[in-house]
Amino acid sequence: MAVIAAACPQPVAAAERFTTERAQLTVEPVAEGLVHPWGLTFLPDGDMLVTERAGRLRIVSPDGRISEPVAGLPEIWSRGQGGLLDVVLGPDYPETGRIYFSFSEPGDGGASTAVARAVLDRGDLRLSDVEVIFRQQPKSGGGRHFGSRLVFANDGTLFITIGDRGQRTRAQTFTINRGQVIRINPDGTIPEDNPFVGVDGRLPEVWSYGHRNPQGAALHPQTGKLWIHEHAAQGGDEVNVPEAGKNYGWPVIHYGEDYGGGQFGEGTHKEGMEQPIYYWDPSIAPSGMAFYTSDRVPAWQGDLFVGALKYRMLVRLDIEEGEIVHEERMLGDLRQRIRAVDQGPDGNLYLLTDARDGQILKVSPTPLY
After folding, report:
1. Given 36, 145, 231, 254, which residue is catalytic?
2. How far is CA 158 from CA 132, 152, 188, 189, in A?
3. 369, pLDDT greater than 90
4. 37 — alpha (psi -120 to 50), left (phi > 0) or beta?
5. Alpha helix locations (H) across 220-294?
C-alpha cells in the first residue's frame, strides 16, 4: 500500500499556467475533497451537480462550497468501477426540476447499469419521484465495464452508453444488453424509429452495438450526431460516431491486444462491422468528453476535448469536416486522472479528477492568436 500511496499525485493546490498550441491555460481548483467524482452537469444558476462513485450526489457552487449529499438515491452497488456514475438535467428541468442519472444497480446475479429520473428539491437536498427507466439485462458479477454516459439528443430522446461488463464474448449477443448505445424516450419507452423495433431476436432499445466500455459521449454541435469514445483492452481505444443499427465490432475486430499480450478476434476489419474514426495505440484510457463551442478561443470551436485516466492528461482533437485531423496533448504535468470534461456556461472547461481527494478543476483559456 505504501508504494501505491507514494505514486498518487497530489491535488492541484493553486492556479497553474500552461502554454498550449492555441491558448494559454490557467488551471485552478474550484472544489476538493470529492471521493472519486464521476459525473458533472451545470445547473441554470451556475451551480454544479456532481456524482461521487461511492453513491453520493452533491451540489457544488462556483466558489467551491460543497453541499451535504442529496437524499433519496436508490440502492447503489459501489464496487470496482461501479457506483453512481453520470448525471444530466432533463430537457424540461426548468419546469419540473427533473434530472437523470446512471448507476450500478444490485439485484439477482450481481449488478448492472441502470438509469433513473427524479425531481431534485434543492432546498431540502432531496430527490423525489425516483423512477428507474432503463435496466441493463441480465445482471452479472464483477466490477468492470458499466459505461456509462447520458446524452439527450436534439429530438429529446436519451442516449445511454453501456459496457460489456467484462464479458466480451457476449458483446455480439443480440438478446442481452452488453456493449451498446441505448436510445429511449425520457419516460423509458422506446422510440418508434429505433433500428430494431419489431425485429425478431433483437432488443428494441438498442441503437448500436459491438462496443466495449464507452465512458465518453457528446453531441456534435453542428450535426447533432452522437460521438462516443470507448476503452479498448490493451491498445486501440476508439472514437466512434454510432449510427442506427450498426455493429462496431467488439470483440471480433479491434486495434488492441489482450492484457499481457496476445491476439484475439479476427483482426481490424470485417465486412458488416464499422471502423472507428480515430483510435489510440497505446491506450490512453479515455473518460469524459465535450465539444468546445465558446467564442473565448475561436481556434478551438468545434474541437473535442477528452480526459485520460491512464496517461493523466487532457486531449484536444482538432476536427475538420467531421474528421479528426490533429491531436494535442495537454496538462500532463498535473499528473491527474481526468474522469470528466464539461464546458461551463462561462466558456471555461471543467474537469473532474478521479481520486480519493478528487477535485473540480477550472481550465480558463486565453487565445494565443
Report:
1. 145
2. 14, 5, 9, 10
3. no
4. beta
5. none
The helix or strand, by DSSP H or E, that contains position 3, with its residue range, turns out to be: helix 2-7
Angle at 42 between CA 41 and CA 45, to 5 degrees: 160
Measured CA to CA in angstroms, residue 350 lies from 90, 111, 121, 244, 344 at distances of 20, 30, 24, 31, 7
Q: Which residues contact 5 (CB under 8 A, 6 or more apart)?
A: none
Residue 5 has pLDDT above 60, yes or no: no
Of the pLDDT bands very low, low, confident and very high (cuts 50, 70, 90), residue 7 is very low
Say how far apart CA 73 and CA 354 lie, in whole Å.
22
Give 217-272 pLDDT, tens digit per residue: 999 999 999 999 999 999 999 999 999 999 999 999 999 998 888 889 999 999 99
Determine the residue type at 223.
T
Tell me the per-residue pLDDT of 104-113, one tens digit each, with 9 for 90 and over: 999 999 999 9
Q: Is 145 a catalytic residue?
A: yes
Q: Quick check: helix, strand or coil at residue 180?
A: strand
**The pLDDT of residue 6:** 34
Judged by DSSP in three states, 7 sits in helix
Instruction: Report residue 256 as a C-alpha cell.
Output: 488492441
Alpha-carbon distance 247 to 210, whole Å?
5
Cell triple for 345: 456556461
